[in-house]
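Why do we bother with a discrete structure alphabet at all? Because it lets us treat a fold like text: something you can write down, compare, and reason about line by line. To make this less abstract, here is a complete entry for magnesium chelatase. Read it the way you would read a sentence in a foreign language you are learning: slowly, and without expecting to understand everything at once.
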Amino acid sequence: MRFLFITMEPTNNSVLKSAAAELSREFDLDLKVSIFNLGLNHSRDTWEKLEREIPDADFIFGSMLFSEEIVRPLEELLDTATCPVCMITSNPALINQTRVGKFSLQKPVEDDKPQGIFKQLASKLRPSHGGNGESQRQLSLVRNVGKLMKHLPGKAKDIHTFISAHQFWLNGSKENMKRFLCLLVDRYVPGYRGVLPQNDPIFYPDTALYHPDAKKPFATTSEFREWQRTNRPGKDAGRVTILVMRATLLSENMLHVINLLRELESRDVQCCIAYSGGLDFRPALEGFFDPGSSESMPIDLIVNATGFSLVGGPAETKSAEAVGILKKIGVPCFNLIPLAFQPISHWRENNLGLTPLQTALSVAVPELDGAIEPHVFAGLEEGSDRTLPLETETRALADRITRMVRLRKKSNADKKLAIVLFNFPPNLGNAGTAAFLDVFESLLRLMKKLKDDGYAIELPESVDALRDKLLEGNRLVFGTDGNVAAHYPVEQYRKEFPAYERIEPFWGDAPGELLNDGSRFHILGAMFGNLFVGQQPSFGYERDPMRLLMAKDAAPNHAFAAFYSWLDREFGADALLHFGTHGALEFMPGKQVGLSQQCWPKRLIGALPHFYCYCVNNPSEAAIAKRRGFATLVSYMAPPLEHAGLYKGMRQLRELVSAWRSRPSAEALDEIRELATTLDLDRADDATGDEEYVTWLNNELYLIEERMIPLGLHVLGQAPSAESLADNLALLVSHARPELDNRSLPELICQGLHLDYDALAERHEEAMELRESWQKVTAICHEAVKRFIGKLPASMPNGVSITTMLDGTLAVRMDEASAYLHKSAGLKPRQLDKLWHFLNGLLAAMLENREIEAVTRALDGAYIPPSPGNDLVRNPAIVPTGRNIHSLDPYSIPTPFATKAGERSAEELLEQYRRESGELPESIALILWGTDNLKSDGEGVAQALALLGARTKTDELGKIGDVELIPLEKLGRPRIDIVVTVSGIFRDLLSHQVRLLDKAVRLAAAASEPEAMNFVRKHVRQQAAELGITEDEAAGRIYSNAPGSYGSNVNHLIESSTWEEEQQLADAFVNRKSFAFSPEGDWQESPEILRSALKNVTLTFQNIDSFEIGLSDIDHYYEYLGGVSKSVEVLGGAKPKVMVGDTGGFGKGQKIRSLEKMVALEARTKLLNPKWYEAMIEHGYEGVREIEAHLTNTYGWSATASAVKNWTYQQFTETFLQDREMLERISALNPNATMSMTRRLLEANSRGFWEADEGTIEQLQELYEELETRIEGAHSPEV
């Protein structure tokens, strides 16, 4: 007799084997039980073995089978089985394969009463209604029914088998496995009826507390505490609970959990193990640890050792329910990973770390609960069914848990805190800066709050004093970019940080060249009592062009490692707070996710409790900080958005255009053209008619005026102004929202005004009449929101919250806004009540800013609830900020909405190229980032699939698991070849989407279609012939860095001015980004295939999916889109067209624009716009640095794509450096950044990007020397 058991995880496998062996011995049976753990091994050999064994099987059982790459092949194999098949708690497609005796879920018989009754029951057992996450609910449903059907003949007995299978398996002790096997032998092996004993399943308690030294589990906390007082006296370093599934305990598969418990107890931490009957841990958490429960036991930390989310399983997750109980308990929840879907050896040897399936189930989904610290601590070896502890990882994990518990127990007065600031690119003008954050103002506010909370902190007198102490101090004595707070002897470093030996192959013998005097490292920063504020050292490659060009793997330099070693071992920090987005630690080499103790981020962070203030609009890099830096994130808001407006002569020009519209004349048109030329708004195409020219010019002015731009920098804890709130919320409701039944406010206004919304939203740039109607609609929208907000009080009376105030005035404000919309657009007064309530909640969340309090709660060791990361407009759920940013469920994207948007923008991209070139592009180089795709729910992925003529497929649970080609006759155009460069973060976070894209390309390449209709197939065949490789090798189209590596380094070469020829920029990009994804799931270095593919490219493209981050705000846009464009130009000998998808204002969907147009728009609305730069200058030092950064990022587009017009540099020079008053302002605030601006302009001229007259260049050279002299003499060395 032969039984096949098929699972995706090992929980019951070892006891099943033992049970089979005991039965065979006891009853002299020839019982063979074959166990297939397809989660651990689904190689071709495994499938072939399973295929061979199915025909000889007497019974096939399966459980916990969900992954698409397993479900479809298994479904086909089960179709061939002739023996009974029983599938439980799996994908519905597999459950429907169940056919036991006369009972079958494949072919229901409607008039069979037992079958009909059971059909209702079976539907509740399907994963879509709870799946494995609610096993106790399933058991309660089947227990009584099972007892009844046991005694009925025929089909009812087979139904009883199906029900009993749930009961035996979900109560999976060895005894239950024996009873299960006895049942199967008795009923489904001929000749054995009545031979073996038949017993009902044993049911075990749904929840209990457990300790391996106790004789039995504990039903109540009082019982456990009494035992603990007797058996574990004197341990008072805090208490931790470890959560496990009951099945793990019943199956005697606890070695890894007990090992962790022993390590914690050896550190004097009290421990208990809590189990739950399934994967819903609410009953255990509520019953044992909820402070509102009479049986509550205080704990300091929760350790989830299951590898799954707290509420749910592979089929689903219910994060809201998990967050609810975790908020009640209020302590951190560590998320541990027992490797269930890959062997330990694979994890150790693979630079990727975790497989996509393990990452999704054990990392991404638990993050939705607010879980932190995703540590691998155990796993399976090939051929083993028992989970084994990873000793090194477990000891390090126990250290981290102990330090977090200690942080909770320690008084604030005794705590030592380390706050780390950043300096990138490294120079004195950039020290202490972070994305969108006024660092020093925010830091001082936090320091004051910490002092109020009892921390032993010495406060500086002002922001300037704080900055001066950190950035000046004794820096000239040591020749550093900041004050030296301490020294760390090199010998001590070698003793305390043994991993220094792994650094020496890259950086030479310690101490290396950076931040040391030969015998001591310089630790940059300053002491403020028990608070150390430090400056993260450079990662060292910035000024070494060859390393930037060639580096694929690396290590931190000695100074970087010494800094973190000193924080922990010498300063003795109790907690580490990285301040702002973002530093370099989490990007150090190592596995992508599921790091080992040999990975550099783990080596550097050690056991330090790690917290991170992170901008809420950057979920992808935030996820890297969580997964690779093991940080608890505390989100902060991006600066508010406001309309860019018009300035200088643009206002006059708009007035002239309006006058000409009323009374056209040749003289007025000449005046318009003259002023437009003065403002560098003259159109390249002069052969247009008067009406067309004025329409174009009016459109350009409108684009500038209405463009939404972030103003200034955010200050932690500071709420936005009423004006900026109106602009932000009006933009938010200009997009279709569920609060408006998936319609936008402008759409409703158009309906009231009897206007064609679709025509206005999509074509208002084409005709003056459409533009004017659209302006009217958007003005009404903005005014309505403004009236709803009303006048906000400057301060609140004592005891009155902002929420209370807003609720109290809601009715009046609703009436005011509704009356205005009724009068202006004919909307019914109560039509928008739902919207106003929604906006009222948003106002409260934005105004009641608790970011600083959230930081202090995190430093107390409290639970920080999760939050999505996004722009406010795309996802209002990001407020309130001060929460722990999470990513998305990778099996949910691209969403249906994102798919439609991606398909629409892909066709618009092709149409625009066709209009300009007269034909379709055969090959497009696409840039896909993690951040943009997380924020847009995968719109970029959908675009790429649409270009290929492919689409996603969802499984029975609604999860995206596969792709398929759209037939050419339905597609109606050729399949476009794509060369996709994904960021290292996209590679890490969206590995499932990488697989989908790769499969779509390979399906297209293999399709038997005419090459004229399939450019993928055409190019793949050409490349295979040219390079002498197989078509499968030539089909590689998804490229990124080597695992654990990030970026192209093109930006570093440009920022550091260490490149000589364009070839170097192209070489850097190709060398770093030439790792092609393979069907086996790894990344293979393939530079020649990438070069060959890029030679066919004629168009490069990237989405700008943010309302807050534009082409000049960060260097990564020109690093990626500019880098690939330059590579195409160098390799192919011609410049490609470069286009971007612009999401920048009112309206629906993206606008496809040329790169040159977007760079010019960025310059006019930000860099040269007084509204933008004056808001920056208000932030002093950091604001001037932001102006310099925008200039450098704009310059990056000259270097990579020749996309910057001469007037940009000229107007910048006139605005900031030739205006003496402005020059004095910015040079007084940040002389180093001002000198960098001057140097960058001189470089732009010397490289031929800017044609300036000799007088201007001489003036800049003199200014540079003047600033250099001023900076060198500003501070005399302190002895």
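What the structure line is telling us, in plain words: Residues 230 and 1004 are 69 Å apart (CA to CA). The longest strand covers residues 333-343.
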